[in-house]
Amino acid sequence: MFEFPQFSNIQKRAIYIALAAALAVGALFFSLSRGNAQPSPQPTITPVFTPAPVIPTTIVVDVSGKVLHPGIYTLPQGSRAADAIKAAGKQLRGVSMTDINLAQVLSDGQQIIVGAPQVVASSSKGRKGSATSKAKITSGTININTATVAQYQQLPGVGAVMAGRIFAFRTSHGPFATIDDLSKVSGMGKSKFANLKSFIRV
Length: 202
Description:
DNA polymerase, domain 1, rod-shaped, two-stranded parallel sheet, alpha/beta, 5 helices, three-stranded mixed β-sheet, about 30% helix, about 200 residues
């Protein structure tokens, strides 16, 4: 009859340790296999949406003077002076358009004056009280974007001819962006501009 071998206590302890180690290794492999079979879900990244800048598609201009329907008009971006005058019903019969650049591209808030008064030089032997005798400004300032021809003549060194040039320049090119733009008017020298610079504003 076969008999199981008798183990000493030391051998039995070694067998128990080996069995426990085998169980631990098996449990480890089982746990790793489950982890590989079921990967942990990845976090969802939501893209950040940045809206595109809104570019204006229209402009608002003021058409005044000798047109059929003076007023404020909304026009497409890139419109020209001719388009604004057409929107206002065109110029009145007999009104000259030679002082307006009809091909000028308009900007938002611009004013177009149709039929601005033409100023001619006064003769040195002209009537008493002519434009050359207008009183000059000594204090305060004049807004060069809203001033009339007569008000321009109140500036130091500005006579009837120069006042007419300033008015025509503003009509053709639109409002002055800065007071320094006044120096772009034909005949406006550095010394003349320096004398009147402290009396103007935009």
